[in-house]
Design a protein that fits this description.
- It is a single chain.
- The chain is α/β, with parallel strands linked by helices.
- The chain has a domain of 165 residues: Rossmann fold.
- The chain contains 8 helices and 12 strands.
- The strands form 3 sheets. It has a 6-stranded mixed beta sheet, sandwiched between helices. A 4-stranded antiparallel beta sheet has the order 2-1-4-5. A two-stranded antiparallel sheet has the order 7-8.
- Helix 5 runs parallel beside helix 6.
- The two termini are 33 Å apart.
- Bound molecules: adenosine-5'-triphosphate (ATP) and magnesium ion (MG).
- The site of adenosine-5'-triphosphate (ATP) has 13 residues, from strand 2 and helix 1.
């Protein structure tokens, strides 16, 4: 039986009075990988921000459901508790907050009943850091403070693995990663995929989709999904760009 993890229905959203998302429909079931492609400025990152409840964006119509629960107007932490995770295209620096503090707080917000002892928790964190090839010393650094582009992306993946979401949105996780890091990240995605997590992978490039083959490819143009297809669509975009796809 297919079970839906994320359902987006006729979603419209605006920022500073400008409509960016113009009626998005998208369903992701458990154990599915979807790729979201589209030209610069199409609204891909906006969709991610709207899904996690970024306060700058206003939903003007439509609905967002996770596991059947309406989270359209929920607080960001409630969306996370419902199982949503977004890896940002441009992760920001939070100078005053150490990675260790942040991860522990985020984890306790999601799993308040688990009460995992600190030592056990940080052993788990260190194991995942090895997997994504992040040195242990990062744990005491402030969030993204002085991190290189690739280090920021690795930290997003670290969070993804530790927080065990049900639906993962990766916004250009492949940009800025070296070849070795891309392999590590793909391996982590595959591990989670095997646990039947739903994925929405926003990307411009084939290189991540060669390793992680999406069953579904959607193309967003000017705030609307203008094509739903499979791997053939991303192959053709690689060769021909977006001009052949008309609204
Ligand atoms: N405050 C704002 N006022 C006006 N327009 C905005 C504002 N914030 C974002 N936009 C516009 O929304 C559009 C969608 O941006 P978004 O970041 O979602 O694009 P994208 O599809 O992720 O592009 P890319 O591939 O370059 O990452 C852009 O044209 C952007 O300039
Ligand atoms: Mg973007």
């Amino acid at each position: 039986m297919t079970e839906t993890v994320l359902e987006i229905k006729n979603l419209k959203a605006e920022v500073d009075g400008k409509e960016i998302l113009k009626g998005i429909n998208l369903t992701v079931n458990y154990g599915e990988i979807h790729a979201l492609m589209g030209p610069n400025g199409a609204g891909k990152s906006t969709l991610g921000e709207v899904l996690i409840g970024h306060p700058n964006y206003t939903v003007t119509d439509g609905k967002i459901l996770i596991n059947g629960k309406d989270i359209t107007h929920a607080a960001p932490e409630d969306r996370a508790r419902a199982g949503l995770f977004l890896a940002f295209q441009n992760p920001i620096t939070v100078s005053g907050v150490k990675i260790s503090t942040f991860l522990r707080m985020a984890y306790n917000n999601l799993y308040p009943d688990e009460k995992m002892p600190l030592k056990e928790f940080f052993n788990m964190v260190k194991e995942v850091m090895k997997d994504v090839d992040m040195d242990e010393s990062f744990i005491t650094r402030a969030i993204n403070d002085g991190f290189s582009g690739g280090e920021r992306k690795r930290f997003e993946v670290l969070q993804m693995v530790i927080l065990r979401p049900k639906i993962v949105i990766l916004d250009e996780i492949d940009s800025g990663l070296d070849v070795d890091a891309l392999k590590l990240v793909s391996a982590e995605i595959k591990k989670m995929y095997n646990q039947k997590v739903g994925f929405l992978i926003i990307t411009h490039y084939q290189r991540i989709l060669k390793d992680i083959i999406p069953e579904f490819v959607h193309v967003l143009k000017d705030g609307k999904i203008v094509m739903n297809g499979d791997k053939n669509v991303s192959d053709r975009i690689e060769d021909e760009g977006y001009d052949w796809i008309k609204e």
